């Protein structure tokens, strides 16, 4: 690297890229005090060179041709364009050229991290990705540096701000999913195509990355349990609430007797659980270590500046470290079968035309050996029944029988 | 240091020291995988060699003479004996001999940190103290490594588990301070001599250390605002609650126009503020950065294993780093006068024999220009009056007048 300047290339000048530019400028003094060198953006790749940007940027820095970035003398490239293609190819080419990479791209890492880590190690460059998980919260750094003596039992959390925002609004304003989603899109809290967020993919990518850091391995994405929030409705949220719980899209990576497990699922948290207090677009990560116990980290998981903070902190940190290869990423197929039948869960039963009476339903469950700890029943004489219950021993066969005998649809959610 | 073993000395084998011993043993494999060397405790100083310990320890390791520790070939010493004398002299001697130090002793650091940091730098040894602030939460590491590009505006939090436990019990069980303190002592949540905790000293020591890390300087302890919880009573807690707030012992270090400020004070937090959710013996630290926004870190702030976790993580981390001098600690006298009169505060007015009527009191405040945002009045005809109000413009002169004219005692607490 040149003696007095760190030359930075940017792939993407959108929400995060714009924030990175602003941050490098506003924090320039601090950066150069720490690094002993100025940090300068020397090339920035975009799709559309004519687009008006929220942050002023010299015309001669902007390019739409990746080859120009590759040919420039950048020391380090910040990848904030997102997506897998053509991004993966670009990042590979830069690593092969000897550039350090800082990325916020969880999808790329969850899909090609194993190859990228190996490649970066081979070429002696750093691949840094703090911003890819939980935005401004420095959770990866903490796991990597300050919790390595602990055996980490699990990492769980609220890793997607969009869905947490939607769930918060649904509960507080008693508005249905579709309406809240529309509002969230208008306010910029959700993308035009919300699939990656609401279907749980985004949270799963982050969980995948956390597992690599904490357990040294992850599951292929297809082997994780993933359920989004698209089908959640106010009936479920309301009954859960009456039972003393809040539904959150909980992401979890854990390793126990049955091997590594990754899941992203709408989950009931007791109202006084710290993760249940995390509202709106905030993220939070809970780490359980065998010595330290439970730690909780909370902050803005997305947005221009919080994400840019993680990118620029990562970049500065990386420049103060000597290169050491990072542990390789590994994927292993899940060890055994998942446990059949949920232990303790929230069962939501609904029928628009009940055949029978609520009493008959609860008797059936009782005889079938389902242990109900707590329940709320809503029933009106037009035969619309809703039951929310915290129960153990509810299995697939009960679901089928309820449908066959009573015309009830049952859905099951985990309870923390 | 010897090639295959890290030789550790312990000063103190009490609550934390016992936890450190257990952790070094249970996590030995992880430690030696990471460090490439076994970690072995080779000497342990105690006061009473005959005492039964909760953790088995070979007799020949135990000593009651510090000189034996100093004469042994330890590479690194864990100071978990506490107090300032004779600890300060011991730590100085060890540093001068070239030993690295890991300490959990916030009092020592707040009183002699400036000298110890300088001495450690001079002798090229590391002085590590993650465990001294917020127990198992790796807040110092995060501030030092992962938030250095941000301008930190303030660090605040609940840094003392004992007082938070007492306040939680007082509120939940409506029991007076003295009774809860007694229970806390019986349960081991409070020391036989609780002064350092309940008077706010312990939290202030930690705040002092946080300020050194974040702002590169701190105030002499006498220049900080410090108020404990010994005089809090249920009347205040109850009225605050009715107004939508919870009283917490809030510690804060901030730097703004008026220079550096340190304070530890019972403070009203809105019930939905993340720090208001921190109950029992938990600690939490909130960091506000100009780029990242607010981050919250929560976990066990004390206790055998959480504190030992911080000690052992610190020790392992230190052994993987090359020595670089740490920024010197500085103390500066406060810049100007503190602002007179609280801006927006909680005023608690009480009279056991009111001269006048509640109406006359509120009229007086109104005429005096005190702006009341919200209030709750409790009055019975035996002339016992309690008023809780969130107000602005309440000053010392009003306090005096209320006492003179109405026989009212007024107390003022900050509101977040
Ligand atoms: N937004 C957040 O809060 C957030 C938080 C954490 C992580 N992330 C991650 O950060 C990355 C960027 O997110 P973002 O919200 O900043 O995205 P964005 O606003 O859509 O910006 C993407 C930028 O990349 C450019 N770009 C996209 N595809 C390109 C291509 N094929 N060739 C050249 N330029 C291309 C775009 O150019 P034009 O401007 O010309 O269209 C734009 O400047 C993603 O991986 C995302 O998952 C985002
Ligand atoms: N306890 C916590 O949860 C916690 C959390 C964070 C930080 N800390 C800090 O950690 C330190 C230790 O706390 P602790 O709770 O472990 O204390 P502790 O249980 O009272 O243990 C103190 C140990 O030091 C030994 N000791 C004390 N004075 C001595 C002297 N003058 N000469 C030789 N040995 C002496 C004692 O010996 P004997 O056993 O023979 O009496 C005992 O083994 C303190 O600085 C405290 O502030 C504690």
UniProtKB/TrEMBL annotation, chains A, B:
NADPH binds at residue 106. It catalyses: L-homoserine + NADP(+) = L-aspartate 4-semialdehyde + NADPH + H(+). Its EC number is 1.1.1.3. The active site is at residue 206. Residues 12-130 form the Aspartate/homoserine dehydrogenase NAD-binding domain. GO terms for biological process: methionine biosynthetic process; threonine biosynthetic process. Pathway: Amino-acid biosynthesis; L-methionine biosynthesis via de novo pathway; L-homoserine from L-aspartate: step 3/3; Amino-acid biosynthesis; L-threonine biosynthesis; L-threonine from L-aspartate: step 3/5. Keywords: Amino-acid biosynthesis, Methionine biosynthesis, NADP, Oxidoreductase, Sodium, Threonine biosynthesis. NADP(+) binds at residues 11-18. Residues 138-315 form the Homoserine dehydrogenase catalytic domain. InterPro entries: Asp/hSer_DH_NAD-bd, HDH, HDH_cat, HDH_CS, NAD(P)-bd_dom_sf. It is an enzyme of class 1 (oxidoreductase). L-homoserine binds at residue 191. One of its GO terms (molecular function) is NADP binding. Gene3D superfamilies: 3.30.70.260, Dihydrodipicolinate Reductase, domain 2, NAD(P)-binding Rossmann-like Domain. Belongs to the homoserine dehydrogenase family. This is Homoserine dehydrogenase. It comes from Brevibacillus borstelensis AK1.
């Amino acid at each position: 690297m040149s003696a007095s300047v760190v030359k930075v290339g940017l792939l993407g000048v959108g929400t995060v890229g714009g924030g990175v530019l602003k941050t490098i400028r506003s924090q320039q003094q601090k950066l150069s005090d720490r690094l002993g060198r100025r940090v300068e953006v020397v090339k920035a790749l975009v799709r559309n060179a004519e687009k008006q940007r929220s942050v002023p940027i010299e015309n001669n820095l902007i390019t739409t041709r990746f080859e120009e970035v590759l040919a420039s003398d950048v020391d380090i490239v910040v990848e904030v364009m997102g997506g897998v293609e053509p991004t993966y190819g670009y990042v590979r080419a830069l690593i092969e050229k000897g550039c350090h990479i800082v990325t916020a791209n969880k999808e790329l890492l969850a899909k090609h991290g194993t190859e990228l880590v190996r490649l970066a190690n081979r070429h002696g460059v750093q691949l840094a990705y703090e911003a890819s998980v939980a935005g401004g919260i420095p959770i990866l750094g903490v796991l990597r540096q300050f919790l390595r003596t602990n055996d980490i039992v699990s990492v769980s959390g609220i890793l997607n701000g969009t869905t947490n925002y939607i769930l918060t609004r649904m509960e507080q304003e008693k508005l249905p999913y579709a309406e809240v989603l529309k509002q969230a899109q208008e306010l910029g809290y959700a993308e035009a195509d919300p699939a990656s967020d609401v279907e749980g993919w985004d949270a799963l990518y982050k969980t995948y990355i956390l597992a690599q850091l904490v357990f040294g391995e992850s599951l292929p994405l297809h082997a994780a349990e993933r359920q989004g929030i698209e089908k959640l409705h106010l009936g479920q949220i309301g009954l859960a609430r009456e039972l003393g719980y809040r539904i959150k899209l909980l992401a979890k990576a854990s390793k126990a007797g049955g091997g590594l497990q990754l899941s992203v699922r709408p989950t009931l948290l007791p109202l006084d659980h710290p993760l249940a207090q995390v509202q709106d677009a905030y993220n939070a990560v809970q780490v359980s270590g065998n010595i330290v116990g439970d730690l909780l980290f909370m902050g803005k998981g997305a947005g221009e500046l919080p994400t840019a903070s993680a990118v620029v902190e990562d970049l500065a940190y990386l420049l103060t470290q000597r290169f050491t290869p990072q542990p390789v990423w590994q994927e292993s197929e899940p060890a055994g079968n998942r446990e059949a039948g949920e232990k303790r869960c929230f069962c939501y039963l609904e029928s628009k035309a009940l055949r029978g009476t609520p009493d008959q339903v609860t008797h059936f469950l009782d005889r079938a050996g389902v242990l109900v700890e707590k329940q709320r029943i809503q029933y009106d004489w037009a035969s619309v029944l809703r039951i929310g219950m915290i129960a153990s021993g509810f299995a697939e066969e009960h679901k089928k029988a309820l449908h066959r005998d009573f015309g009830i649809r049952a859905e099951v959610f985990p309870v923390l």
